Hints:
By secondary structure, the protein is mostly helical. The chain contains two helices and no strands. It starts with a helix and ends with a helix. It is elongated.
Amino acid sequence: xxxxxxxxxxxxxxxxxxxxxxxxxxxxxxxxxxxxxxxxxxxx
Length: 44
């Protein structure tokens, strides 16, 4: 989920810039670092 959301939001906010892939992966890693531990705490 964080993979898709980071892709869409990065694309909306920046458009297709030259360093899009780098910025998208950075946004994904930050989002994953937040969403994964949160899901482990909330789901059980």
